[in-house]
Amino acid sequence: MDRKANILVSILWVITSALDIVIFFVNTLNIREKVTMAVLFLYSVSVAYEGIRSIILGTNIGKNMVIFRLIVGIISIILQSVVLIRYFR
């Protein structure tokens, strides 16, 4: 896959990780949401790490994998934005 697309998807997942941290520390008593955000954080960190590692090593990730990561990343950011908007209203 194109190196530029891989870089953009990795940046998307780094942003997702940052949003997970923000949501985790929002004052909420719902432990289920905190656990969900912690799991999403671990997943997004692993995806971002793998993408950045492949950029540094110069290996290519398949086109389908990059598209899958992009779709899941966008869905994750939308869900996290909804949670943040709900708590900061």
Please provide a brief summary of the model.
The protein has helices at 3-24, 31-57, 63-87. The mean pLDDT is 74. It is built from 3 helices and no strands.
Q: What is the helix tally?
A: 3
| Unreliable runs | none
The computed structural class is mainly alpha
Number of domains: 1
Q: Could you give the order of the helices and strands?
A: HHH
Dominant shape = elongated
Return the average pLDDT rounded to an integer: 74
End-to-end Cα distance: 41 Å
Largest sheet: none
Q: How many DSSP E strands?
A: 0
Multimer state? single chain
Radius of gyration: 14 Å
How are the secondary structure elements laid out?
Elements (H helix, E strand, L loop, with lengths): L2 H22 L6 H27 L5 H25 L2
Helix pairs in contact: 1-2, 1-3
Notes on the structure:
The chain is mostly helical. It has one domain. The protein has helices at 3-24, 31-57, 63-87. Helix 1 (3-24) runs parallel beside helix 3 (63-87). The longest helix is centred in the middle third of the chain and has 27 residues, at 31-57. The protein is elongated. The N and C termini lie far apart (41 Å). The mean pLDDT is 74. The chain crosses the membrane at residues 6-26, 38-61, 67-88. Keywords: Membrane, Transmembrane, Transmembrane helix.
Question: What structural keywords apply?
Answer:
mainly alpha, membrane, transmembrane helix, transmembrane
